[in-house]
Design goal:
The complex is a heterodimer of chains A (277) and B (246).
Chain A lengths: L25 H23 L4 E2 L2 E2 L17 H4 L1 H8 L2 H10 L29 H21 L2 E3 L3 H6 L18 E3 L3 H17 L3 H9 L10 H15 L2 H24 L9
Antiparallel strand pairs in A: 1-2, 3-4
Chain B lengths: L1 E11 L2 E11 L5 H11 L19 E4 L2 E4 L14 E4 L6 E3 L2 E2 L2 H9 L19 H10 L7 H5 L1 H4 L10 H11 L9 H6 L11 H5 L6 H17 L2 H10 L1
Parallel strand pairs in B: 1-5
Antiparallel strand pairs in B: 1-2, 3-4, 3-5, 6-7
Helix pairs in contact in B: 3-6, 6-9
The chains are: A mainly alpha (277), B alpha+beta (246).
Chain lengths: 277, 246
């Protein structure tokens, strides 16, 4: 067995020991900053439990909105565990945080701080729950898709409605609620923000490795399996998204935070939502 | 013509040192050319394994400025001319001499891998029918040239020396080539979990980064195998379905 260590002069003992001369630390540092920034913002936004709704807009951090009387904390905590679990157990994010936070390894061919390594065998065996979070994440896509559709439905802007509305936001009362009365199709910047949000989240969710396995990856012989052709096409489709899973992971993470921030700032009156139609 | 400094590992067994060689270099040279010129002009006892010089035999694997690479596919022009190029042997395997390591462990692992077991032939003449779209997955893995750079960079082997418990990305890829083949009937999920040590892989993708054949080792081989292991050992819903089906 090839277990003898490399000659002492070549050993990578301790964190950061390497013969590499490129900026290997840059990628894990950027990942750590990105994940920490999102983590702090998301925790704060979930914790405050306010300014998550305005007019037809609902922050994705609070959707679906459950507000049971017995729950003492922010309603975001009732639902955020599901998308959080999906991201934490995601194969891309695992790579990202194993490198950036656990330094296991911090970069390829770079020394590590610890020598007691179990991989995903002991504590991290929970990562195998990913497929169950994926099932929930797919449900969330439909919920957020519904939120995006609702964001295009506004009260008809009659004189009576205009009289009780916030200036520049016909149909939205000063409390942030929608005015009573008939509805019509309308587009605000927030409608576009929430629509882009669900599209990006769908790109991330429908490129998931566990979904890829579920729709066809588990099949060896497509021509022998029931609905083999259809499942092959599904597998190919998921594979197209899966090839850029990292891109979808980051862009959807950024945008879901931005969508919450947009709704929050409009609800707080810091910015005005521009009505396009 | 320009002079460059090459810092080569020289040694045997567990001892050795980095030795500088200054060399006249020509345009278009690759690292293996420089090593051969050092052998020819300055160090005739320098040990170096090579064969095709075309990136297809997988023999000249080494570490160039700390990164596992094929020497024959690494251009000198990729590196700043005023800084030495460091060339060292692969660290995951025992050193024989200078740049040559003993990679025989890999062949032992290969022998232990559950074999390809095709289903009975579809036709009386002993042939099978399968479609191109079905074998494409497995064909990607057959591009492997057995350079073992993925084994070398994998921190489970390189840093944590789990050679007794983990077969490494090269043989997870080989297992995926069998496992996803439309004719194969062998089930490797339990082997991969128990003897193969697939749980040691924390999918940090270094194997994919260094593969000279650009095989998506992590995404297309290891993760699909991990999902098959989950099917068999960690998914209670699948367990219930298996129970009901008997």
């Amino acid at each position: 067995m090839a277990t003898s260590a490399a000659p002492r002069v070549l050993e990578e003992r301790g964190l950061g020991a390497t013969l590499r001369r490129d900026a290997w630390w840059l990628a894990p540092a950027a990942v750590a900053i990105g994940l920490l920034a999102f983590g702090f913002y998301a925790t704060w936004a979930a914790w405050v439990g306010d300014h998550y709704e305005w007019g037809p807009y609902l922050s994705p951090f609070y959707s679906p909105l459950f507000e049971p009387g017995w729950w003492p904390l922010s309603p975001a905590f009732l639902i955020l565990w599901a998308p959080l679990g999906f991201r934490v157990t995601c194969y891309y994010y695992r790579k990202a945080y194993y490198r950036a936070f656990f330094l296991d390894p911090v970069a390829c061919a770079v020394g590590e701080p610890r020598h007691d390594y179990h991989g995903e065998r002991k504590l991290f065996v929970f990562q195998n729950l990913h497929r169950f979070f994926m099932y929930l994440a797919v449900v969330f896509i439909f919920i957020l898709g519904w939120d995006a559709i609702v964001s295009f439905i506004w009260p008809v802007c009659s004189d009576a409605v205009r009289a009780v509305s916030v200036p520049g936001a016909c149909g939205v009362l000063p409390s942030g609620e929608l005015a009573e009365g008939p509805r019509t199709f309308g587009i605000g910047v927030g409608s576009l923000v929430l629509t882009i949000n669900v599209i990006l989240l769908a790109g991330f969710t429908f490129g998931c490795h566990a979904l890829r396995h579920a729709v066809g990856g588990s099949i060896d012989c497509f021509s022998c399996a029931k609905f083999g052709r259809q499942r092959y096409r599904l597998w190919r489709g998921v594979t197209v998204l899966n090839k850029r899973h990292m891109f979808w992971a980051w862009i959807s993470l950024f945008w879901v935070g931005f969508a919450d921030l947009y709704v929050r700032l409009v609800a707080m009156g810091v910015i005005s939502d521009l009505r396009l139609l | 013509m320009a002079k460059r400094v090459f810092r080569l590992f020289r040694g045997q067994g567990n001892t050795g040192q980095l030795v500088d060689y200054e060399l006249e270099c020509d345009e278009g040279m690759v690292v293996l050319d420089a090593v051969h010129r050092i052998q020819a002009e300055q160090a005739p006892d320098l040990a170096c394994r090579w064969n095709c010089k075309a990136g297809k035999c997988g023999s000249c694997s080494a570490e160039i400025n700390g990164k596992p690479r094929l020497m024959c596919m690494t251009r000198l022009s990729d590196y700043p001319p005023d800084r030495p190029i460091t060339i060292t042997p692969m660290k995951a395997f025992p050193l024989i001499k200078d740049l040559v390591t003993d990679v025989s462990w890999n062949y032992e692992v290969n022998r232990r891998l559950p074999e390809f077991k095709p289903r009975p032939p579809d036709f009386p003449d002993g042939s099978w029918r399968m479609y191109q779209y079905e074998v494409e997955r497995a064909q990607e893995f057959r591009k492997c040239i057995e350079c073992f750079l993925c084994q070398d960079v994998c921190h489970v082997l390189r840093t944590h020396r789990k050679h007794d418990e983990f077969i490494g990305p090269a043989f997870l890829t080989r297992a995926a080539a069998y496992e996803t083949h439309p004719l194969d009937t062998n089930d490797r999920a339990t082997y991969l979990k128990e003897q193969g040590g697939i749980g040691y892989c924390n999918i940090t993708k270094c194997c994919t980064e260094v593969c000279p054949e650009s095989i998506a080792i992590t995404d297309n081989a290891i993760i699909p195998l991990k999902e098959r292991v989950v099917d068999r050992h960690y998914d209670p819903l699948r367990a219930i379905v298996r129970l009901l089906k008997g």
